[in-house]
Amino acid sequence: MKKHETDISRRKFLQRTAGAVALVSAPGLITSFSAGETDKTLKEGIMRRKLGKTGLEISILAFGGGSQFLRNPDGEWEKVLESAIESGINHFDTASSYTSASFNQGGTKSLDSEDRYGQILPKYRNRIILSTKLESRDADKAKAELEASLKRLKTDHVDLLFMHSIQSSDNTAELEKGLYKAMVALKASGMTRNIGFSSMDSAERSKELLEKLDFDVVLLAMNATKYGNFAGLALPAARKKNTGVIAMKAVRDIVGNGASSKELLEYAWTQEGVSAVLVGHYGLPALKENIQLATDFSKTGTSGLNREALELRLASLASPRILSWARPGYTDGHLSMVC
Fold it and tell me: How many domains does the chain have?
């Protein structure tokens, strides 16, 4: 083979090499996360990564249907959803508890998150990953709760079904005998293709659930403040079992308060084991900015970010005083909780 055929540029090497890569350069620490051949960059647009054992390929920027999305008024949220789809974002997350408290002129209540999704997403169903969440811990209510969500979403199944907001008060043994068992049955029935849980409250309980039960995917709060230590406790447990990991709360309450969107998203994207970052968007400008950041990152899969320096800079923000979603009683998707 001729030499020019075997020479691979440094950029291409970083894109193709398997595993995580860390290189030190003059400007700082250059980091990249790659799952090797499982990363797929579109010809133009947003990279997709394998979502653990699910076999799904998920865009590194995912779309959240909580309070930030609900802030978009009628006539605007439709454009936000359509723009996200057109950009190549293919994961759309919601929950039955994501309800709108806003009213349009004339006193008409705006649609809740699942209903909004049901207005736009069905025509794209075969090209998106759709997820929702179970609010109740009552196993006997799980099927009826999911059936109601599917009706609002206008689909016969979701791709990911989460136990919503695991907390330290949740008992692993009780969940195993109850709600987890019910979710396994829902997966067997075809109403969901994968099961998991979300948590922004307890990395310790998340770690325990990952170690003792067989989940396909998790949605975990992880950001550069290191609040909650999900990356230190729960993420390694997920990697060990090839459980798909989606990061959330990566930018909420932090962006503009000591760090840029670029820094915060790249911090999460270069976290080994994280397939995607879930972000809620209020307004087209914010969405378009994040789409561009995801597109730019996708070209190389690398970042000039100095992770340790960013963590040090943001350490003082790791507090419920700053992070509204970490405060007792916080419920995402309620506009009254928007800060």
Answer: 1
Decide if 245 is inside a domain: yes
What is the span of the domain harbouring residue 134?
44-303+312-337
- What distance in Å separates the CA atoms of residue 22 and residue 251, rounded to the nearest whole number? 23
Beta bridge partners of 160: 131
Kindly list the distances between the CA atom of residue 147 and the CA atoms of 63, 133, 157, in Å, as whole numbers in the listed order: 22, 12, 9
pLDDT per position as a tens digit, 85-132: 999 999 999 999 999 876 565 566 789 999 999 999 999 999 999 999
SS3 helix, strand, coil % of the chain, rounded to 5? 40, 20, 40
- Does 297 map to a domain? yes
Amino acid at 325: W
Query: Which residues are CB-neighbours of 285 under 8 A, at least 6 positions away?
Result: none
DSSP per-residue string spanning 262-330: HHHHHHHHTSTT--EEEEE--SHHHHHHHHHHHHHHHTTS-B---HHHHHHHHGGG-STTT-GGGSTT-
